[in-house]
Every structure is written in C-alpha cells, then in structure tokens.
From TrEMBL:
The keyword Nucleotide-binding applies. This is Cyclin-dependent kinase 9. One of its GO terms (molecular function) is cyclin-dependent protein serine/threonine kinase activity. The keyword Nucleus applies. Residues 382-397 have a biased composition (Low complexity). The lineage of its organism: Eukaryota, Metazoa, Ecdysozoa, Arthropoda, Hexapoda. The gene is CDK9_1. Keywords: ATP-binding, Kinase, Nucleotide-binding, Nucleus, Serine/threonine-protein kinase, Transcription, Transcription regulation, Transferase. Its main location: nucleus.
Amino acid sequence: MTNLNGVVTPPSTPSPNLLQMNMAREREKYLEEYNFPFCEAATKFEKLAKIGQGTFGEVFKARDKKNHKKLVAMKKILMENEKEGFPITALREIRILQLLKHDNVVNLLEICQTRANQFNRYRSTFYLVFEFCEHDLAGLLSNTKVKFSLGEIKQVIQQMLNGLYYIHSNKILHRDMKAANVLITKSGTLKLADFGLARAFSAQKNGQPNRYTNRVVTLWYRPPELLLGDRNYGPPVDLWGAGCIMAEMWTRSPIMQGNSEQQQLTLISQLCGSITPEVWPKVESLDLYNQLELVKGQKRKVKERLKPYVRDPMGCDLLDKLLVLDPAKRFDADSALNHDFFWTDPMPCDLSKMLSQQTQSNFEYLAPRRLNNHQSSAMRPASAVASQGSSTSATSGFHERVF
Ligand SMILES: Nc1ncnc2c1ncn2[C@@H]1O[C@H](COP(=O)(O)OP(=O)(O)OP(=O)(O)O)[C@@H](O)[C@H]1O
Ligand SMILES: [Mg+2]
C-alpha cells in the first residue's frame, strides 16, 4: 500500500491473537449453522427415562413430541474421546443396521442430533433412534415374576435363531450375543440389538485366512475359539452365544460366569469336556492353545448338567448341539431351526398373553439383581474393556454361579 507521500506501508494486520479469535468464531458460527443432511433435531423427542448404560453411551426411552404414541429408544453416540470426528464404530453400526431389515432385528428409524452451541462447546450429540421395545431378555430373566412356559421358551429361541439366520445370510456377524442385547416387544416379537461390535464377514480370500480381532463378545458368552485366539472365525461365534442364552432361559442367570479368560476356558471345559485335538481337530494351531492352561480329563456333561433345569429332552439335545467346542461341528442357525425341539409339542407359542401381565418394562439396567453388571468388565466385550484401559479380567459383578 502506498500513502500520499509515496511511502510504502504494510497493510494493517490483526495481531496473531485476534486472528486466532476470528478463526475460532468463524468455526463456531460454521458449526452452529451447519445442517447435517438426513439428521433431524433431537428436540423433536422428549426423553422419558434412562433405560440403558452401555459401554458406548446411554440409552433413553423417549417419545415423539408431535405424536405421543410413537415411542423410541435413543442411543447416544459417545464422542468424548473422538479426535477424528464421527466415531468409526458408530458409522459401522449405522451402515450395518441400514442394511438389515427383518422382524427379528432391531429397527433403526433415524439419526438425530443436538445443535452445536456455546453451552456444549460446539459439539453436537448424535443419537441412533430405534423403535422402542418394552423389555430386554436379561431384564425379563432377572424378574422372578416372569415365568416362561416351554412353548414360550421355544418361541423366544426360534425368533433369536431366525434373526441370526437372517444376519448370517447377509454376511454379518453380531459378535456380542448376550441376554441384554436381545429385546422383546410387548407383543412378543424378539429383536436382536446392539450391532456396535458387528462386522461383515467373507469366506477366506485366495486361501488367505481372515484376521479379525478376537477381542469381541462379552466374556461369559465368548466361545472357546475366540478365547484361544482364533482370528479366522465366523457365524459359529454367535451360535455359541445363542446356546448360552438358550440355557439361561431355564437357569435364569448366565451359565458360565468366569472372571478371566483363563477361568472362562476352565468353566467351558468343565461343562463341554476337555479341549483336545481328538474332539477338535487343528485346535493346536490356535495362537493361545499352548499358552493357556487347558484342563485335562474332563468328560462332556452338557446334557447331564443342564437336565435338572431344562427337563425337556429335545431342549437338552439342541443345547448339546449348540454348545459344541469345535466351531466347525457346532450347529448353524439353519440346522438349529430344523431341530425337533421346534417341531414337537408343545409348539412355539405366542408370548403376548404372558407379557401382558407385565405392566412395567424389564431392562437389565433397571433390574435390581443385575444393577452392578454394567460396571463389571466381564459383562463387556474385551475390546470395549481394553479401550477403557482396564484389564480384561472382571473384578466385580455377579458371582452367583449356576454350576
Ligand atoms: N430399541 C430399544 N428399545 C428398548 N430398549 C433398548 C433399545 N435399544 C437398547 N435398549 C436398552 O439399552 C441397553 C443398551 O443398549 P445397547 O446394547 O444397544 O448399547 P451398548 O452401549 O452397546 O451396550 P453394552 O455395551 O452394554 O452392550 C440394552 O441392553 C437395552 O436394555
Ligand atoms: Mg448392549
């Protein structure tokens, strides 16, 4: 710039501080005004109660302000530790839920957000909005007033297997099967929920084994192949969890409550027999086979130990075929659905009449007996525990053992 005397003077530049402040203000304005596409304001819902405290955020029951009859569950996406924007785990959950549309899979309705403003330090909160289901199976099982007849148990397990058959046919693994992730509506429809750890799977490519993380599935529902470090696993991991949940329909609490990976494997061997190459060919090739202590000389006692609870021979037989050590020999969802258990009297029967006696929701989070569970690391998948920086062995939680 030249002044009247022909002397060149630099343009007046704001101080670095002022520049930074301006940039920050610009950013705030941008964030305040930014409209995320396909993402409505969370204020359209009125929160009614907190119904879940998951590893990755809170879950609320809410209703649509414009349509009071429309109830939803809002799952908050935890953004606290995010430096890179929207968390990849939530994106994966959304993509998978968008793909899956089935009566026995929870229905994702939309994503909504709170607006960024100075009160939330210009950070929006995002929610996954689901159709509301009145109960979860962990809540129902911990309520002693809820009694399932054999036909009703068959209906629950059949729907769970239908859901698994559907997701596996769509090449999705759930990887966190447990009673708290199985929802049931008041009309008796079961929905698999919590796809936070789910992933797509494929057959091995060019003969190369898959290398998926084995730090998945809540410890008490974790199959032996994951405990032994397998990274080339598939749908059988979910069928093991289905077997544990099926047994829980009678025992009313998780059947193997280990407090470390080592103890979980011991409990599995005490029920399903010793892990040896005779019953499980190629088990020696799994990474941790030689590193963990495997109990020897244990007989398989699945039927014998579950009979006093289950009392139905068909039920015991199906459990025996789900809780199989070798994943290659474990029943898949299709074989399980074809088992005589579902095709002999009493046939699977409607749950709505029994559930109509429940005037209040049953959720694990609200159940007194399980109140401490969400603090126990055994109740969370290893990957979630690791991301919180604690050890993978449980130190608290429930130690009331069935066996
Ligand atoms: N659509 C829904 N209707 C009713 N309740 C729900 C719904 N979705 C989730 N919940 C409740 O909230 C709980 C936690 O939800 P979800 O399992 O999806 O979250 P999470 O953070 O992944 O949990 P966790 O880490 O404990 O497995 C469920 O166990 C269930 O009780
Ligand atoms: Mg969950």
